[in-house]
Amino acid sequence: MTDEQDKTPAEPLRVGVLGARGRMGIEVCKAVDAADDLELAASIDQGDSRSAVSAAEVVVDFTTPDVVMDNLRWCIDQGISAVVGTTGFTEQRLEQVRGWLADKPGVGVVIAPNFGIGAVLMMQFAARAARHFESVEIIEQHHPRKLDAPSGTATHTARQIARARAEAGLGPVPDATKDEVSGARGADIDGVRVHAVRATGLVAHQEVLFGTTGETLTIRHDSYDRASFMPGVLLAVRAVRNRPGLTVGLDALLD
Ligand SMILES: NC(=O)C1=CN([C@@H]2O[C@H](COP(=O)(O)OP(=O)(O)OC[C@H]3O[C@@H](n4cnc5c(N)ncnc54)[C@H](OP(=O)(O)O)[C@@H]3O)[C@@H](O)[C@H]2O)C=CC1
Ligand SMILES: O=C(O)C1=N[C@H](C(=O)O)C[C@H](O)C1
Hints:
This protein has seven helices and eleven strands. It has two domains: 13-111 and 227-253, NAD(P)-binding Rossmann-like Domain (Rossmann fold), CATH 3.40.50.720; 117-224, Dihydrodipicolinate Reductase, domain 2, CATH 3.30.360. Helices cover 31% and strands 25% of the residues. The model has no long low-confidence stretch (mean pLDDT 96). It has a six-stranded parallel beta sheet with strand order 2-1-3-4-5-11, with helices on both faces. A five-stranded mixed beta sheet has the order 7-8-6-9-10. The protein is elongated and about 65 Å long. It is α/β, with parallel strands linked by helices and 255 residues long. The structure holds NADPH dihydro-nicotinamide-adenine-dinucleotide phosphate and ligand LZUJQKHR. Residues 87, 113-114, 142, 146, 151-153, 204 line the site of the ligand O=C(O)C1=N[C@H](C(=O)O)C[C@H](O)C1.
């Protein structure tokens, strides 16, 4: 039979969701259900047994920073590829994941601080602008039920900006503050000040403010609905098994 004659539809990819009853998990389950090429094989939340997820080929994790490493270790041990949106990934944690993956060469993991395509572009544009401005501050704004501050997106953006500034030979951001009420100047992430705002009505928003003599540049992204993260999540779900090892961020998948 030629490929042309073989019209058998491909089996849908079996996806498991961890954190399935959370704000993001609910949205991911809906998106997977709605996709013809994906099947929701298991949806697990706090207190459920993880064993149901063994049937999945790809696991999506939107849980909490304190449980995500244990989940990830379990997936890798089971030989299941994973797409992770949960925050809390320090360089040390990423290194640990790389170590686990070294023993499982067929397994892929994508960890992205933000799956919104606009947010990924905002981070790229900010990294590109960074070397042209002596001043930079990040203001992130989120719903008040968010557990971590500053956000994973803001932390990632600050690190990328810091790297671009170092490569360009820029020194510290100018700031004459001598007398400070604790916290007034925000958190210092690799030399970049990050301010975290929490308010009912917000979803996920970030502004990167750059300044130099006589001008400022503001790069802003807004997620008004968690549906905004789904194209990125599904892109990673479909790609992850063909990307053994660890992929951090969506940039490589978008390109
Ligand atoms: N990368 C991205 O694009 C995005 C990332 N995020 C991140 O995703 C994470 C989740 O966000 P959000 O959905 O708003 O948070 P929620 O608190 O709404 O959801 C987390 C869910 O995980 C559950 N959970 C806790 N422990 C476990 C466990 N061991 N196994 C399975 N499920 C568990 C929680 O249960 P319970 O409530 O009972 O504890 C809850 O239902 C956060 O870190 C957030 O920052 C959010 C949006 C986009
Ligand atoms: O908790 C959230 O809501 C979000 N978390 C991620 C982060 O911390 O950056 C991504 C997005 O900002 C929404």
